[in-house]
Amino acid sequence: MYLCRKLHQKLLQMNKPVVGFSKLSKLEKIDWIAEAYFSAPEEAKSLLKNYWNSDEKIQKLHDEFIENTITNFYIPLGIAPNFLINGKYKTIPMAIEESSVVAAASKAAKYWATRGGFKATVINTEKIGQVHFIFKGDISKLELFFVQTKSKFFSDTEHITKNMRNRGGGILDILLKDKTDLIPNYFQLHATFDTKDSMGANFINSCLELFAKNLKEEAQSYESFSEEEKDIQVIMSILSNYVPNCTVRAEVSCPVEELTEKHIENPQDFAERFVQAVQIAEVEPFRAVTHNKGIMNGIDAVVLATGNDFRAVEAGIHAYAAKSGSYSSLSHAKIENGIFSFWLEVPLALGTVGGLTSLHPMVKLALQILENPSAEELMQIAAVAGLAQNFAALRSLTTTGIQDGHMKMHLNNILNQFETNEEDRVVIRKHFKHHVISHSAVVDFIENLRK
Q1: Range of 228-242, 353-367, 412-426, 434-448 with top mean pLDDT
Q2: Rounded (5°) CA angle 402-404-406
Q3: What percent of the chain has pLDDT over 70?
Q4: pLDDT tens digits for 97-139?
Q5: Residue-by-residue DSSP string for 65-81
């Protein structure tokens, strides 16, 4: 199925791209893909069609989310219950393909529910957009021009911001920033926004593009500018996914003696090892990247399940992790006066209205499971999921080791990969209850079993 066909070889020999692909129907796209890239095209076509949604209306909706769609690519949606957040239990939907993530989150939730639960606080909700432009002239004149023109940026966008202002949001401020120390003649209009329950990308970008239009037009009629100074060159107008002032804090704490459980015989020793593990991630970038990846296992799964942009979230959070000039841990831990504390602060620009939240059926379902949270509540939930994942990973690393639990969950993937039947699975699972699980060990056991 995966070998190249003659048609594919011919296309490569001709070294010509396909023409008019976007104008083909979905079935025609599938036919082309199957014929060009698969030795068994009918098998490929069948597989692609098997992943279509049986409900034609839902499938049409999915087809229109992006361009050149041929089928759906499913990611499992799991549930992590028993999260006690700010005194209220939450059941968290998580969309992720990695084994053990949902199980680890659920286990951490259950663990902390008996120790006071998670506390979460939104610190700020400010979002950022910038107009990047080139100005060749007297900076003092540009600064005076901006002071005299600033109010017009607000007034001329009132038709865009009206609904957002009615909800308590809108444009917070607009600043002129001199960046000529970085690039000659480079300046910014640096605008801050509050977009309430929407992520606000379209709202922010619409405002920015009007700022840019006004900037150029007002400069043309500003008498103090020379002809060269009037020719302001706008390079681009775009929101920033780095939102260091749109942050949320999640934390857990309890007396050290309460940390005891099955794999923690000495809670003081465990707490000290845990804090040291976090300290290593604070100073060692190679460890910090993997450490923070574990946090993102929880955050991304919630962000994806609720129809938010996890790529934007990832980019912003990792930039935040490097804000000191060196990449570092997003979470922190300490022991003070006999109290163990573990917390993180992350930037999270999320929305619960607009975009996919009002279109994707599974996103609607996920938000309903979360009891239709506001954007600030969703920020708290996502941050808590990240902290729970991080706690689960560090607890394993400092006690039994990460592979013990992970490989037990990964066993199913190996069994599926080798298409084992139910009878064999019973034998295999029974064997590996008492033996170390590794990919090679499982493969060897399957091969011996089949012999």
Answers
A1: 228-242
A2: 70
A3: 94
A4: 999 999 999 999 999 999 999 999 999 999 999 999 999 999 9
A5: TSSS--S-----EEEEE
Q: How far apart are CA 366 and CA 7, in angstroms?
A: 44
DSSP string, 138-191: -HHHHHHHHHHHHHHHHHTTHHHHHHHHHTT-EEEEEEEEE-TTTSTTEEEEEE
The active-site residue, picked from 98, 156, 217, 284, is 98
Distance CA 79, CA 369 (A): 10
> Residue 79 has which token pair?
């549930």
218 in catalytic set: no
Lowest-confidence segment of 91-95, 198-202, 284-288, 298-302 by average pLDDT: 198-202
* Contact predicate 133/187, CB 8 Å: yes
DSSP structure class, residue 356: G
Q: Residue 157, CB half-sphere, CA atoms under 13 Å: how many?
A: 28
Measured CA to CA, the distance from residue 446 to residue 448 in angstroms comes to 5
98 is catalytic: yes
Say what the pLDDT of residue 440 is: 80
- State the Cα–Cα distance between residues 375 and 355, nearest whole angstrom: 13
Active site residue 406: yes
Residues 77, 366 contacting (CB under 8 angstroms) = yes
Q: Which of 107, 291, 406, 410 is catalytic?
A: 406
Predicted TM-score (pTM) of this structure: 0.86
Three-class DSSP category at 126: coil
Phi first, then psi, for residue 76 (nearest 5°) are -60, 145
Q: Which class for 140: exposed (0-12), middle (13-18), buried (19 or more C-beta within 10 A)?
A: exposed
Per-residue tokens: 328: 């570092």
- Find the catalytic residue in 126, 300, 309, 377: 309
| Tens of pLDDT, residues 66-107 | 999 999 999 999 999 999 999 999 999 999 999 999 999 999
Q: For residue 441, which of 403, 391, 384, 387 has the smallest C-alpha distance?
A: 403
Instruction: Please list, in sequence order, all residues whose beta carbon lies within 8 angstroms of the beta carbon of residue 23, skipping any fewer than 6 positions away.
Output: none
Q: Which of 119, 293, 332, 364 is catalytic?
A: 293
